[in-house]
Design a protein that fits this description.
heterodimer, A: mainly beta, seven-stranded mixed sheet, four-stranded antiparallel sheet, globular, B: mainly beta, five-stranded antiparallel sheet
């Protein structure tokens, strides 16, 4: 099983809403990542979790709050977002010893109105 | 920060043609990867390279880790319509921690 799943596929939210994005993998990977991708641009790293601990936060605004409940799950909690936060949010995972072979999920298309 | 120069930015080819694209960096990289992204989907890992000079194939795709460790190449032979998409190179610097992505090559294939 080499699949990373993400839910929901699409999300529309207002600037005052609170929502969460979910990611799951069952490959036994111990590193998980959140990326943000704008149209026709490369993915931009947001957060890295290693062994369920946050190891990298790329200066992401506090309106994005990651959570790693266990080694298979990764959440991204969203609150008070801005329209410019509209993007494709990608989750990825990798083996701890081959951290650069990252496997991506299909993404959540987020629109902030 | 470090940026990767990926070229060409876009390509328009006929079905059956071979395709070449490349990625260069200003510093030495320890890892090079190539991803393909279809519209509305996440990037799919095509090939990972870990040693200078390494040449690796995945079906009709062949990628090479440049011997200077500052570049990588991806070739697609006998292109087909389903090869359409955006191809991203990505790599890790010698002393880096995060994966750095190129800006992508958009491939269009006409049948």
């Amino acid at each position: 099983d080499t699949e990373v799943t993400q839910t929901p596929k699409h999300l529309v939210m207002g600037m005052t809403n609170k929502k969460s994005l979910k990611c799951e993998q069952h490959m036994g990977h111990r590193a998980m990542y959140w990326y943000k991708q704008k149209a026709k641009k490369p993915p931009e790293l947001m957060f890295v979790y290693s062994y369920e601990k946050l190891s990298i936060n790329e200066s992401v605004p506090s309106r994005f709050s990651p959570e790693c409940p266990n080694s298979s799950l990764l959440n991204l909690h969203l609150h008070a977002l801005q329209p410019e936060d509209s993007a494709l949010y990608l989750c990825a995972s990798s083996r701890r010893d081959r951290a650069y072979e990252q496997y991506f999920g299909p993404g959540t298309r987020l629109t902030v109105t | 920060g470090q940026q990767l120069n990926q070229s060409p930015q876009s390509m328009f080819i006929q079905e059956g043609e071979d395709v070449s694209m490349n990625c260069t960096s200003s510093s030495i990289f320890n890892t090079w990867l190539w991803y393909k992204q279809d519209p509305g989907e996440g990037p799919v890992l095509l090939i990972a390279l870990y040693k200078a000079g390494e040449l690796t194939s995945n079906g009709r795709l062949t990628a090479q880790f440049g011997i200077t460790r500052k570049d990588s190449f991806l070739n697609i032979s006998a292109s087909i319509p389903s090869d359409v998409g955006i191809y991203f190179c990505a790599g890790r610097e010698q002393a880096g921690t995060a994966l750095i992505f190129g800006k992508g090559t958009t491939l269009s294939v006409s049948s």
